[in-house]
Each structure stands twice: as C-alpha cells, then as structure tokens.
Specification:
By secondary structure, the chain is of the alpha+beta class. It contains 4 helices and 7 strands. β6 and β7 form a beta hairpin. The chain starts with 5 loop residues before the first helix and ends in a 7-residue tail after the last strand.
C-alpha cells in the first residue's frame, strides 16, 4: 500500500492558514478611517510641539476631556488642556503620545476611536492606558468632539 503525503500536508497547510487568519488582527485601514485618525494625529503633533493652537485646531470649540487617574476623573475643555500643555515649565521634558491597534467605528458623520496608548516623557514611557475619541464630521472635515482616557503607571516595558 502506497501512502501519499500530499493529502496530510495539504490538510496541515489549510489548517495552519485558517489558524493564522483567525489570530491575525485586521490591519487594513480605509481612506475614511485615515481621515478619522487625522485630527487625532494632528492633536498629538501639537502636544509634542507644545503648541496650544495646534492642539485646539482639530477639535470643535468647547470639546471636553475626561482624564481618569487612579479612579478619579479630571474634566476640562480642550482649550484648558491646550493651555496647560502649550505652556510648559522651563524644565519640561519632551512629550509624545502614541496610539496603537485603534478600533474605529464610523456611522455617517459620527465616529469613535478606541485605542491603547503609550505616553512618553523624555523618551521613556510615563504612563499608558486607553484613549476614547468621539469625532464628528462637519463641512466634510472630521473634528474631535470629546476625549476620555485612562492613565496608569504599570505599563509594559517597550
């Protein structure tokens, strides 16, 4: 009796392909998802530059923020936040916020972005957590309407 290795190998290849497909997160961003992320990236660039005007520009006037720290909320407008970040102390460290693996949902002129983040100060992780952005599209342009985030210090080393 002749045993063919073709069938078991083909079955194994199909099984491995199915497992890989089931465990690989979808990475494909549509142009619309890129447009939703654009104001978030612009705000982060403004934060890194410590430019209050650039921080406020991608948000609607009066956009709100709720920053959760140690189970306690701190509420402010984007304008107040921009004032704080845009006027650093003389010994302020360079800052950068990075999101990854964003979950983006869009319905007509409303979008939400849920994404883990890492916040760096002087090139080292200062805190991490999850960002939640609500955005609206007005006059064909996506703008941030509100932001909430969690912040914790027990971040994995990068």
């Amino acid at each position: 009796m002749k045993i063919s290795l073709r069938t078991p190998l083909l079955s194994l290849a199909i099984a491995l392909t199915c497992i890989a497909a089931a465990t690989t997160p979808l990475q494909a961003a549509t142009p619309e998802e890129d447009a939703v992320l654009a104001p978030i990236n612009a705000m982060f660039a403004g934060m890194s530059a410590r430019d209050a005007a650039a921080i406020k520009l991608p948000a609607i006037p009066g956009a709100t923020m709720v920053l959760m720290r140690d189970g306690k909320p701190t509420q402010m407008t984007v304008e107040a936040f921009a004032g704080r970040v845009g006027k650093p102390s003389p010994n302020a460290k360079p800052i950068e916020e990075r999101i990854h693996d964003p979950l983006i949902k869009i319905d007509n002129d409303l979008a939400v972005v849920w994404a883990p983040f890492d916040f760096y100060a002087d090139g080292k992780i200062d805190h991490c957590g999850t960002d939640l952005f609500n955005l609206i599209r007005t006059d064909g342009k996506w703008l941030i309407a509100s932001i909430a985030d969690t912040g914790r210090k027990d971040c994995p080393a990068k």
